[in-house]
Amino acid sequence: MRTRVKICGITREEDALTAVRHGADAIGLVFVEASPRHVSIAQAQAAIRSLPPFIAVVGLFVDAEPSFIEQVLKEVRLDMLQFHGDESPEECQRYARPYMKAIRVRPDTNLLQYALDYPRASALLLDAHVEGVAGGTGQRFDWSLIPADLPMPIVLAGGLNADNVAEAIKQVRPYAVDVSGGVESQKGIKDAGKIAAFMRGVTDAAL
Ligand SMILES: O=C(O)c1ccccc1NCC(=O)[C@H](O)[C@H](O)COP(=O)(O)O
Fold this sequence. Notes:
It comes from Methylovorus glucosotrophus (strain SIP3-4). InterPro entries: Aldolase_TIM, PRAI_dom, RibuloseP-bd_barrel, TrpF_fam. This protein is of the alpha/beta class. It has a single domain (4-205), classed as Aldolase class I (TIM Barrel, Alpha-Beta Barrel), CATH 3.20.20.70. Helix content is 29%, strand content 21%. The protein has 7 helices and 10 strands. The protein has helices at residues 13-21, 41-48, 66-75, 89-92, 111-117, 165-172, 192-205; strands at 4-7, 26-30, 56-61, 80-83, 99-105, 123-128, 154-156, 176-179, 184-186, 189-190. Strands 1-2-3-4-5-6-7-8 form an 8-stranded parallel beta barrel. Strands 9-10 form a two-stranded antiparallel sheet. Helix 6 runs parallel beside helix 7 (192-205). The N and C termini lie close together (10 Å). Ligand LARABZUK binds next to strand 2 and strand 8.
């Protein structure tokens, strides 16, 4: 089975459709004001309005107020939540949606403990730790820090691109990969050629 792909930081309808046309399984919408990939509720609605069925829409938040998340959930058809800040397990599981907990991995990060602490997460999304930046850094981390026996699906993120995604999949064997900067022409604007090349890399890893 091919590794699933989530393309994150989608801000425009045409980029959502390009991602899907090339085989992406999920798209991510960044509801974080400080991000260059931030979408308003209206932009999010527009970006996903013509998506075909069976494509998952993931809403990304960083330590957001619950009232804001509830408001987004009322107005945008999100299938899953992605918590990219310091949200506790209780905070992550209070919404009527499955969620992924993003972990910014450092050499001393105990990923097995995170899996135990967030037992109701659908997956752990593993991203690079860059001081002072919540995510979308374009940096990769040392994949050998990921234990082989994590009792939870892994979504591998952080600095992935067409040149390294096949190697990443072969080494880590994640459930899914997540990419943002590696398929962009500028922050928040996706590039069809880079998306196509990334998807070829994912397919090549399965051969
Ligand atoms: O994308 C952002 O600007 C962002 C801001 C705040 C928190 C998280 C953010 N992005 C997270 C992601 O898009 C994914 O983890 C992504 O796959 C990793 O980004 P990249 O290294 O650019 O592929």
